[in-house]
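Lecture notes, continued. The same structure-token format from the folding unit now serves as the input rather than the output. Read the line below as a description of shape only.
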């Protein structure tokens, strides 16, 4: 089982998403840029990774990035 404190979130800026790859599967938070706005429009965590806080870590990482990077 994965622990949300040990998973690494990767920012794939060219694909407009944040990703966690663990246990051979991928969880993601996708976003769109529209001028000064960021639209986080999709979060997906595969069933095998659910209940481990991974979606929360993705969202917290995405929001922290949005708050520190002007667009």
């Amino acid at each position: 089982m994965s622990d949300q404190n040990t998973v690494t979130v990767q920012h794939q800026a060219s694909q407009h998403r944040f990703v966690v790859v663990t246990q051979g599967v991928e969880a993601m938070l996708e976003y769109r840029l529209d001028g000064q706005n960021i639209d986080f429009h999709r979060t997906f965590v595969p069933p095998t990774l659910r209940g481990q806080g991974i979606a929360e870590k993705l969202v917290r990482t995405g929001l922290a990035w949005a708050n520190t990077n002007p667009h």
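Point for the exam: Residues 54-68 form the longest helix (15 residues).
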